[in-house]
Amino acid sequence: MINKRKFHTIIFVVLDGLAAAVSWSLFFAYRKIFIESDKFGARILVELDKNFYLALMIIPLYWIFLYYLSGHYKDVWRKSRINEISKTFTATIIGVILLFFTLLLDDEVRSYQSYYKSIVTLFVLNFGFTTIIRLIEAAYIKSSLRRGLIGFKTIVVGNNQKSYQLVKELLDPRLTQGFMIQGFVSVNGDAKDHILRDLIPTLGNYKQLPALIEKYQVEEVIIGIESSKHLDINKVTNVLEDQKVILKIIPDIYDMMSGQVKMNNVIGTALIEINHDSMPQWQKLIKRFLDFFVSLLVLIIFLPVFAILSIAVKLSSEGPVLYRQIRIGFKGKPFHIYKFRTMYVNSENEGPQLSSANDNRITPVGRWLRKYRLDEIPQFFNVLTGEMSLVGPRPERKFFIDQIVPFAPHYKHLHRVKPGITSWGQVKYGYAENVEQMVERLKFDILYIENRSIAVDLRILIYTILTVIQGKGR
To answer: Please, what are the domains in the chain?
Structure first.
């Protein structure tokens, strides 16, 4: 059975398509009655030919795809009506310009002024109908949230007067934002003696959050601690690094003055959302397309090189050509990574070990492959299947992750994105020879995740290519 959120998303998509179809139909009539009649000096009848019906099927799909790239359907329950108007305005401008150059530029017109009229008319029709329908949809969603028909299952974290005031506001029906509070957990002290125990259920300690999120199907965690208390906040966020929940914290006056607090609701509690997803939806689609296209191209073009390297590895020492190893990837899921074998067989009989600059386990051919990073070529297959990306934090084995996490609990943050063949950490720091160097390299990968974009990926790829050409790998 389809859940309410998916149902509302489908409704948004269908109504967007309907708005686009109505707008195009009226625009089609406008072109016939005004533009073409003005061109030929006689009234042109509106005839619904096959081109009209073909466009009526394609144009709504075009607009829906454009809105999808713009992130309109990411979470329809969290729509802001003001933001909705702004995003619709921007998407409509882009959409109309693309339609003009692909469909309208070859129209029969009397003068260039007719083009301007067509663009303005199409924009007004599409923006007007889409915005009106979306505002009605958004108003319905807001009403459903206020009435408690839908909402976001939430857990509050906190152990002070600040969290008490926060919960009182969240429970106030006049200020509701759709939070369905399941209970609270404490950061320090005994939850049974907590100031919140008379307002909402006691769920335990913050360390139990992962289990509680799964049990109650929680979508949001609100940290009822001032943002200045970094130590307490870090303890909570480290526990939640690999959890698919929205994190929010109470801002202080410095956060407000720095511009971190964005007003999405006039009524309700002001909160800072901790958002690690800096890449827009349209860039994610481009990134995946580039991953697939480049990987396929490399595997095809470098097939002769692949064959030559396979022979070289086979002749260098006994053992298989390819080396397969289990690594931890996106969302903490294990997968098999492929590389050209660069070490002698049974090199880890004494357990997992990191390689070093003068590692005698590496074969002569393997040392050369590592220098130019040619041992990584088989990983383009991992990228092709979607287990990896061209650019992303390097995947690691669970054995070493278990050693890193006690020193750097935020390491789990790397699992929010797909691992990559190359990374900012690898470009800036190189390969790590021990856990301490892994932790040191971690800051570059965290920095990448917080700032990732297509432009950043391209820079990293360029630096990687230079590293390969100069033979600075190892």
So the answer is: 4-146 (no CATH), 152-274 (3.40.50.720), 281-470 (no CATH)
The pTM score is: 0.71
Give 347-351 contacts, CB < 8 A, sequence gap 24+.
351/399
How many angstroms separate the first and last alpha carbons of the chain?
A: 53
Interacting residues of 19 by C-beta distance below 8 A, sequence separation 6+: 126, 129, 130, 133
Q: What is the pLDDT along the chain (474 residues), one digit of tens a residue?
A: 468 889 999 999 999 999 999 999 999 888 878 766 666 565 666 677 888 899 899 999 999 999 988 888 888 888 877 888 888 999 999 999 998 888 766 666 566 677 788 889 999 999 999 999 999 998 899 888 888 889 999 999 886 777 888 888 888 777 677 889 999 888 876 555 567 777 888 888 888 999 999 999 999 998 887 666 667 788 888 888 778 888 888 776 455 444 554 545 544 566 777 776 668 878 888 999 999 999 999 999 989 999 999 999 999 888 899 999 999 999 889 999 999 999 998 888 777 877 776 788 889 898 898 888 889 999 999 999 999 999 999 999 999 888 888 888 778 888 889 999 999 888 877 777 777 888 888 888 888 888 889 999 999 999 888 888 876 655
Cα 384 to Cα 284, 299, 328, 421: the distances in Å are: 15, 9, 17, 12
